[in-house]
UniProtKB/TrEMBL annotation:
Source organism, top-level taxon: Bacteria
Keywords (A to Z) from UniProt: Amino-acid biosynthesis, Lyase, Pyridoxal phosphate, Threonine biosynthesis
Occurrences of domain Rhodanese (ranges): 80-123
Natural source organism: Heyndrickxia coagulans (Weizmannia coagulans)
Residues binding pyridoxal 5'-phosphate: N87, G187, N188, A189, G190, N191, T316
Catalysed conversion reaction: O-phospho-L-homoserine + H2O = L-threonine + phosphate
Phylogenetic lineage: Bacteria, Bacillati, Bacillota, Bacilli, Bacillales
PROSITE patterns tied to this protein: DEHYDRATASE_SER_THR, RHODANESE_3
Cited function: Catalyzes the gamma-elimination of phosphate from L-phosphohomoserine and the beta-addition of water to produce L-threonine.
The keyword Lyase appears for this protein: yes
Official protein name in the record: Threonine synthase
Catalytic EC class: lyase
Entry's Gene Ontology molecular function annotations: L-serine ammonia-lyase activity; pyridoxal phosphate binding; threonine deaminase activity; threonine synthase activity
Length: 354
């Protein structure tokens, strides 16, 4: 077979892969860096989207999960556990299924986008819903994994960040160097930390340069921006509905070392970016992902991102994950007509202007 080999093979020399690490892959990684010409023109920057929604389970989590599950197996584990706002659980369930081990997922009841839940069900995970939020779920699984023979695969597992840093490698390879600004959504703060590690490692080896890291939390869950734990985080972007990020310190470090900023964006700003991206660029990314685009729009206005800069926005998950939020954005309902050629032709003659 002549195809992309998956992350563990492609970036073996940068990863904790040994002779004993199983050759696990769903052919994750190698996602496109899409030039956003129309948004670039509107904003006056050179904007690209790293579309992580095109990974095998539809989010960036696959990069970290392939590494974490492979290492769990290498170390003799037969089951993995995680708390999740949806994407981590979908990814853990898929890699556990591929590897033939158990996945136990603990999720906040009623706050998981429909597509993510469908994935966990189909991949055969054991699903526990709690009447609480992600932060409470994470606390519970951390405790359980200390006392039971299950491996924790949330991003507090360092192998997760090792796998996720490979997206920074790909951006440097695709652009030929690091961008001026890396815009990224922030939830539990693992991914911004992983990207920074990746940019530093690649720069050390290939002198690809370092970006300013611009992280974006949802306004109702902006713990790092406010510098305090948010007890009851709320946002339409359920993926990043997190009030006590586990990698808080690492994210602040990435911000400060890179001369960047962690900022917040409101739900209306996120939803505007969600529609704008789909309609102007044909790219359907889930609401949480669009915090990065919303953040770029906000900071171009405030001057925190300079005109003419080369900006990469990370689009962390696929829009198909959350059909309900997408449908709530529909302003014009589809026309319902009788199944006759005449009715449809009549209707279209009024909407098609040649
Ligand atoms: N975007 C999406 C689509 C996510 O699912 C997440 C996190 C983030 C951004 C934030 O990344 O946590 O590394 O800062 N989702 C986790 C989950 C929490 O359980 O799926 P982060």
């Amino acid at each position: 077979m002549n195809q992309w080999p998956g992350l563990l093979k492609q970036y073996k020399s940068f990863l904790p892969v040994t002779d004993k690490t199983p050759e696990l892959t769903l052919f994750e990684g190698n996602t496109p860096l899409i030039p956003f010409a129309r948004l670039s023109e509107k904003l006056g920057v050179e904007l690209y989207g790293k579309f992580e929604g095109l990974n095998p389970t539809g989010s960036f989590k696959d990069r970290g999960m392939v590494m974490a599950v492979a290492k769990a197996i290498e170390n003799g584990s037969r089951s993995v556990i995680c708390a999740s706002t949806g994407n981590t659980s979908a990814s853990a369930a898929a890699y556990a299924a591929k590897a033939g081990i158990r996945a136990i997922i603990v999720i906040p009841s009623g706050k998981i986008a429909l597509g993510k839940l469908a994935q966990a069900v189909m991949y055969g995970a054991e699903i526990v819903e709690i009447d609480g939020n992600f932060d409470q779920a994470l606390k519970i699984v951390r405790k359980v994994s200390e006392t039971s023979p299950v491996t924790l695969v949330n991003s507090v597992n360092p192998y997760r960040l090792e796998g996720q840093k490979t997206a920074a490698f790909e951006i440097c390879e695709q652009l030929g160097s690091a961008p001026d600004v890396l815009a990224i959504p922030v939830g539990n703060a693992g991914n911004i930390s992983a990207y920074w590690k990746g940019f530093k490692e690649f720069n050390e080896k290939f002198e690809t340069g370092l970006p300013e890291m611009h992280g974006f939390e949802a306004e109702g869950a902006a713990a790092i921006v406010r510098d305090r734990v948010i007890e009851n985080p709320e946002t339409v972007a359920t993926a990043i509905r997190i009030g006590n990020p586990a990698s808080w310190k690492l994210a602040v470090n990435a911000r400060d070392e890179s001369g960047g900023v962690i900022d917040s964006v409101s739900d209306p700003e996120i939803l505007d970016a969600f529609r704008l991206l789909a309609r102007n660029e044909g790219t359907f990314a889930e609401p949480g992902s669009c915090a990065s685009i919303a953040g770029v729009i906000k900071q171009v206005k405030t001057g925190q991102i300079k005109k003419g800069s080369k900006v990469v926005a990370v689009l962390t998950g696929n829009g198909l994950k959350d059909p309900q939020t997408a449908m709530s954005q529909v302003e014009v309902r589809p026309a319902v007509l009788p199944a006759t050629e005449e009715a449809v032709t009549d209707y279209l003659s009024n909407v098609i202007h040649v």
